[in-house]
Amino acid sequence: MATSTKSLSEFSSKNITDISSKKFAIVVSEWNEDVTEALYSGAFQTLIQHGAKKENISRKNVPGSFELSLGAQWCAQDETIDAVICLGCVIQGETRHFDFICDAVAQGITQVGLKYNKPVIFGVLTPDNQQQALDRAGGKHGNKGDEAAITAVKMLGF
Ligand code: DLZ
Predict the structure, then answer these.
(1) CATH T-level fold of 33-156
(2) How far is the CA of 35 from the centre of ligand 1 (A)?
(3) What is the model's pLDDT at position 158?
(4) Which pLDDT score is estimated for 1?
(5) How far is the CA of 137 from the centre of ligand 1 (A)?
(6) Dist CA 46 CA 141 (whole Å)
(7) Helical H segments across the chain, by residue range
(8) Other CB atoms closer than 10 Å to residue 1's CB: what's the count?
(9) What is the pLDDT averaged over residues 82-92?
(10) Angle at which helices 33-49 and 144-156 pack, to 10 degrees?
(11) Residue 82: which residues within 8 A CB-CB, separation 6 or more?
(12) Burial 59-75 (b: 16+ CB within 10 A, else e)
């Protein structure tokens, strides 16, 4: 993911693998929907721009980021799917709920990728507040949905 000085959103599309026949599943958390919809648009457009076919990109929604791991697993177990992109936004609150969700989803997504031996991408924002989230969902810090999609493309070319 990006730092304030580095963003994969500006990734060059030269010399990337041909993804025209690759199938993608994008799993989107409905929590903080305004943010995750922007992440989804970024991810979808980026895949298309890099050669993916619209009909090869499927979308599944889950209620919150905690459910992304299971949603990813249901997608990854489909042998026709080449890569899964998980999109969510967990905003820091007053309790430790944030830590539990972030830890669980990071570990869960990692495990799904290792279990199914395919790219399962962590496109989950973990900001302190809504503004930081919007800044990273098409705002001044780019769109982390784009970056998640580019990460999937890069991993398919490994
Ligand atoms: C419960 C909860 C809270 C407080 N905050 C968020 C959040 O900022 N982002 C997010 O994606 N989900 C949140 N959730 C919902 C949990 O991810 C999960 O859906 C519920 O705990 C039910 O398992």
Answers:
(1) Rossmann fold (3.40.50)
(2) 14
(3) 94
(4) 47
(5) 18
(6) 16
(7) 33-49, 68-76, 97-116, 130-135, 144-156
(8) 15
(9) 97
(10) 40
(11) 22, 23, 24, 118, 119, 156
(12) eeebeebbbbbebbbbb
Choose among 105, 108, 86: nearest CA to 40.
86
Q: pLDDT-derived band of residue 16, with 50, 70 and 90 as boundaries?
A: confident
Dihedral of alpha carbons 108, 69, 45, 19, sign: positive
**CA of 63, closest atom in ligand 1:** 19
Q: Which of 97, 99, 114, 129 is catalytic?
A: 97
Give ligand 1 pocket residues (Cβ under 6 A): 29, 31-32, 63-67, 88-91, 93, 97, 101
Residue 57 has pLDDT above 70, yes or no: yes
Residue pLDDT, tens place only, 98-143: 999 999 999 999 999 999 999 999 999 999 999 999 999 999 999 9
104 or 93, higher pLDDT:
104
Mutate to test the pocket of ligand 1, among 36, 101, 122, 130 (most ligand atoms within 8 A of CB): 101
Nearest CA to ligand 1 atom 8: 90
Q: Taking the domains of the chain in order of start, what are their residue ranges?
A: 33-156
- 50 noted as active-site residue: no
Closest-lying ligand 1 atom to the alpha carbon of residue 101: 17
